[in-house]
Amino acid sequence: MKCKNCNTMNVPNATFCQKCGMPLYTPQKDRTPDILCLISVVLMLAGAPIRKLLLELNRNNLAYIGPFYRILYSIFEILPLVAIVLMVIARVKYPENRFAKILMWVYIIGFVVMLLVLAITILSCGFALRDCSNYYY
After folding, report:
1. Where are the domains of the chain?
2. CB neighbours of 111 closer than 8 A, spacing ≥ 6?
3. By the 8 A CB rule, do 112 and 61 touch?
4. Position 133 pLDDT exceeds 60
5. Which of 45, 65, 67, 75 is the most exposed, having the fewest neighbouring CB atoms within 10 Å of its CB?
6. Using alpha carbons only, what angle is made at residue 124 by residues 114 and 130, rounded to the nearest 5 degrees?
7. What is the pLDDT of residue 64?
8. Could you tell me which of 44, 20, 40 has the C-alpha nearest to residue 32?
């Protein structure tokens, strides 16, 4: 094996150069957490459009899905949960991975935004119903 630092030929399967002591191989970066996070993003983004498509196909009788409709819909209903589990696995097993850290914060911020939208919706509906209560008497 040839050293990339000093071009010395070394014995096969040597881990360090005989002349300069440099490592003869570069360890490969583990891509597993990046792959887990990428799958997580795809699952998170794919769930809602596929559920909407299944709902429209079933509602408009454009395609016969039959008894499998509920099964398919349920599978795509849990995709965001699976996406979060994959992100947590990547975050726990590879705590220094930057993609997993960023994805965790994106999911947390998204969840907080959804809670805020839900709270605003509930409050606005409550105020709207309270304003309409005078018309029924």
Report:
1. 34-136
2. none
3. no
4. no
5. 67
6. 150
7. 63
8. 40
- CB distance 34 to 20 below 8 Å: no
Q: Are 42 and 49 in contact (CB under 8 A)?
A: no
d(CA 48, CA 35): 21
Q: Helices marked H in the chain — which ranges? A: 32-59, 68-77, 79-93, 98-132
Give the per-residue pLDDT at 16: 87
Looking at per-residue pLDDT, the higher value among 129 and 47 belongs to: 47
pLDDT band at 107 (very low <50, low <70, confident <90, very high): very high
Query: What is the token pair recorded at 65?
Result: 């899905």
79/73 Cα distance (integer angstroms) = 10
Q: Which residue has the tokens 């990046």?
A: 34
Q: What is the DSSP string of 12-43?
A: TT-SB-TTT--BSS-PPPP-HHHHHHHHHHHH
The token duo for 94 is: 């590879």
Q: Is pLDDT larger for residue 136 or for residue 29?
A: 29
What pLDDT does residue 83 have? 93
At position 65, the amino acid (one-letter code) is I
